[in-house]
Amino acid sequence: MSEPVRSTRFDLAPDHVLHRIQGAALVVGGLGIIGCVIGIFAAREAFFHAYIVSYMFFLGLGLGSMALLMLQYITGGAWGAVIRRILESATRTLPLMAVLFLPIAFGLTHLYEWARPDEVAHDAALQHKALYLNVPFFLGRAVFYFVAWITTAYFLNRWSLQQDAAADPRLTRRLEMLSRGGLLLYALTISFATMDWGMSLEPHWFSTIYGVIFMGGQGLSTFAFVIPMAALLADRPPFSRIITPTQFHDLGKLMLAFVMLWAYFAFSQYLIIWSGNLPEEIPFYLARTRGGWEWVGIVLMVVHFVLPFLVLLSRDLKRHARAVSIVALALIGARFVDLFWMLRPAVAPEGFAIHWLDPTVAAAIGGIWLWLYVSQLKTRPVLPLNDPAIPREA
Fold it and tell me: How far apart are CA 233 and CA 15, in angstroms?
């Protein structure tokens, strides 16, 4: 039997595609920031409407990575050990997302009806919810969420790196115990955070499954991001000696599972609201099935579920890194459209429209996020050492 891989440094060649991706991301992010500065003065409302969508999308990549990382520590398996450093790099972008929350904090009155005192003064329902939906408590909760997320990610990364230096079973046990509590903390905080930042855009509406839909979407977004990244890394040793069609097959199956999970959650919410037919609940879907939004919903059903479901049933496709990566990239686009469909009608009920700030803000946040992500990826070994879940070399 051959020995486990002991040298896992990923020495990027000067011509590696990740260097070009990182450089392009920085340029796109810089140009996007310039556009955002212009947009703040030229179309302030549209800027904040675009910002909340892009922010929630890229935040979801970091949080979804943290959740999958903890899930792998609890369940084990080579699928997660192979992509562990890809996931860890995404969790280290959470401090950036904490900083990028500041525009939302300063733009509360542009986004949230409950943050405008004149609106609250004439609305009995908002007055009733004011004990929870008020600016100081909202910001305090946001601070708590980020402290919890960043602290959890910090110890996940720290103990994982310490595990490289010594095969100490206590570290493995510590990571497992942290993940058990961390997953529960993630479920609670993301439920309240999505309620605060997403659902309260429509303060008269509520859904008990709203946070669960976001959790499923974040898991799907993460798999859709991880698979192309793993494919990019697979052209250099030691990653090329470890990741095989079997690992891509496993990742593809898990992505398919999250495609079905997201569809189940989304349909469950629709079915519950449709069957209840309550005046407090149906405005959510009425706004998203009129004024052009109904076509976005149809596209989502096809691109976000039907086509990926049918394509990912193929075993051969899931074992082919490039083919499954193309499907994953399409799903990343579908995930962004889904968030756009969920959040934008809440702040722009006049009908479907795309403002020039929508792609501009996405370029700004996405470019800076991707640049930081690649920077973090290059600072650690590409594979964890001393982990029994890492497959042995052929």
Answer: 13
